[in-house]
Amino acid sequence: MKRFFKPIEKDGSSAPKKPCLSPEDGVEEGKNQKEPTKFVTWNANSFLLRVKNDWSELSKFVSDFDPDVIAIQEVRMPAAGGKGKPKNYGELSDDTKALREEKQILMRALSTPPFGNYRVWWSLAESKYAGTALLVKKCFKPHKVYFNLDKLASKHEPDGRVILAEFETFRLLNTYSPNNGWKEEENAFQRRRKWDKRIVEFLSQTSDKPLIWCGDLNVSHEEIDVSHPDFFATAKLNGYVPPNNEDCGQPGFTPSERARFGTIMKEGRLVDAYRYLHKEPDMESGFSWSGNPIGKYRGKRMRIDYFLVSEQLKDRIVSCKMHGRGIELEGFYGSDHCPVSLELSKPSSYTEENQVSN
């Protein structure tokens, strides 16, 4: 039986804290004393629903793992700004009574342990769709936070799909990559091709510093990354078959997407942290997304949530783990995605400084 989040009683400590709301133009900070080494990425499939239904279990997971950074995708909360008003894509909407109540529920939850230890940045869509959030422990201060692939101060990507944090020795990119869809349409194949092209451009322009790229990347690179390769390779929507064979199959597992993903990794000199450590199939815990337990997708699973790191960071990978198990969505905390974690060893300051400066 699901447990609903119980709002904190109103007192002096329960009010939403201003530091949890991100300024539109990012945040400037001084030098860090140290840098994050433990990370979690998770597609929440509606952060508000997770707060209402699964917060106790999720809070325990975060307390136990104690990540320095939490990257969230599919926040599904609208950006501030009502009809006829400018949108503030870095702030939750409170333009109606219902939205004010939902914002209050969410921000109260984020003020409770262990989440009160984190500062939160948002990048949101105009409606309850997509959106990302980045939670960073307050003791780790990014030099700058952007919300687009162009590193422009005030711009947010459409649908709030990007948060980019600059730390002293690396960048952290949190993305909710667009789904490929099933057809040759503007919001399907064409949108994904444009996204992949922009990612390549971003990587070529930011090679001066190591990168940790995490999030729901909406692609399974190899056959080992899906539970039923034949099922996904031949999947159709209402019998429709795309004219190009390279675009056939389950979104996220078409030959064209997988080939482009391989190109992105090669040109960006990126290492798949999970696959770097786990070479063999794992039918129990080797996937981050699971199909509906009822229907033809029962037991069908994909690994589409990643940590990709620059090659110069690969020797620091201590662990990378999927925290969900089996086909009953154990460890998914109400979502259809499970959290994925990455832990790096602490850097050798001499080595890291030379890698960044060279």
Automatic annotation (TrEMBL):
Give, as one word, the top-level EC class: hydrolase
Q: Where is the Endonuclease/exonuclease/phosphatase domain?
A: 40-337
Which of this chain's residues are annotated to bind Mg(2+)? 43, 74, 216, 218, 336-337
Instruction: Give the family per the record.
Output: Belongs to the DNA repair enzymes AP/ExoA family.
Q: Which key words are in the record? A: DNA damage, DNA repair, Hydrolase, Magnesium, Manganese, Metal-binding
Cite the Gene3D superfamilies for this sequence: Endonuclease/exonuclease/phosphatase
One Pfam family this chain carries?
Answer: Exo_endo_phos
- What protein does this entry describe? DNA-(apurinic or apyrimidinic site) endonuclease
Report residue spans for region: Disordered.
1-35
The UniProt note on the cofactor reads as follows: Probably binds two magnesium or manganese ions per subunit.
Q: Which residues cross the membrane?
A: none
The UniProt record lists the keyword Chaperone = no
Annotated site (Transition state stabilizer): 218
Task: Provide the site residues for: Interaction with DNA substrate.
Answer: 337
